[in-house]
Amino acid sequence: MGATAPRVFGGVGNSSESRPNFLIILTDDQTYRAIGYTNSLVQTPHLTDLASQGIVFENAYVASPICVASRASLLTGIFPQQHGSVGLDGNGFRQSVIEDKRYRTPAHLLGEHGYLTGFAGKSHLGSPRDYGFQAAEEFRDIDDHQSFAFASRFLKERASDRKPFLFWLGAKQPHIPLQPGEEWLALYRDKEIPLDPNFRESPPEGSLYNQGLPGERYYRESEYPPDHQGLRSGPPRTREQAIEFIRAYYATISHLDKQIGDLVAGLRQAELLENTLIVFLSDNGYHLGNHGLGNKITMHEESVRVPMFVRWGRFPARGVRCRELVSSLDLFPTLMELAGVPAPGWLEGRSLAPLFHEPERAIRECVFSECVGVGGKRGMGHRMARAKRWKYILTDTNEEALFDEESDPYEMRNLASLAEHRATLSGLREELRDWMTRVGDTHAPPPSG
Ligand SMILES: [Ca+2]
Predict the structure, then answer these.
(1) In sequence order, what DSSP letters do the residues of 215-276 get, joined into one string?
(2) How far apart are the CA of 341 and the centre of ligand 1, in A?
(3) What pLDDT score does 11 carry?
């Protein structure tokens, strides 16, 4: 990584004509299975088409499965306990980025290197102009109409001036309350919606299922207005209510898919598509009744794993499915490498560019995530070390979980207490212990051995 053009794309130089543009599409609360290329029930023809022209990251994990912390991590390239916004409070980010200027965002750095930077949609961290975006507007409309209109205007201007750009679109969909139009609901009305094997009407006992302070589930969901059916969005949900919720959730994603398709059509028309690197991902996942929960915040796959792909006309490979472990923190160094901008020293992620070239070569052995400030008390919550086959979780009450993701992808059998998995447990405890030290986790480390 450095100031020179990446080796794998011999033709990429630093002149404004050859530097790639970046379009980041960040959705809100979209779990990894809620996209057409992973789950054919979900109708996302545009996203599926785009992904088929690029590289899909099947094992992508967010640094933290909650909106504010996750977004602040994407923008700083570090974990929440490092930038200071650990839950839903943006003050840590504002202090460390805006006031103290200890960390800077991709918008700051690309802006300094001649990029025009734009933002539209959900920020959750104050005005994006305060953290480096030059043309920025926060929108809170539930259907993202204004955000896409703003994005479209920004891209039209680039079609005229041909200046390199970074545009960050923070969509609000499919966050609750779900209010998709009838035409989108109609896509799913007669569809049979199978519930996942780990569906429950309410969660089992245990701190793995905390979504706030110990014993607190369904964090804040009662604060949201009723959805399109007049139902409260939060669980506990019966099987029938969960199915209706999932229909509305998928319908919202199909609507979003259409908006993204229109935006990309505009890029193509403006002849900007081939040199624009599109990164699609979500800020966190969502429990669709999995383990009896809604919302996110847990370290379960539904919450912490997100759909993610990159599409770029100058890719060496297309239609690639990469199964290596990647993190939302990898976005920042990837942008820096491809723009030929030196990556700052504080970044915790790795550039994804080597995977574009060699998708089967691991860039890490273990990926981490944390959600430790929800409920207002720092140090509570969950942290995770996820290796390719195994996942280890340590909760706020020192409960441990070990899941075999190959044989148990729905995480229904906690193997942490079984002697035969002692060595695996021990290795992941050590990984997590090192990570906790690195990020300054205030919670007691996992037991040794
Ligand atoms: Ca979110």
Answers:
(1) T--STTGGGSPP-TTS--SSS---HHHHHHHHHHHHHHHHHHHHHHHHHHHHHHHTT-STTE
(2) 29
(3) 39
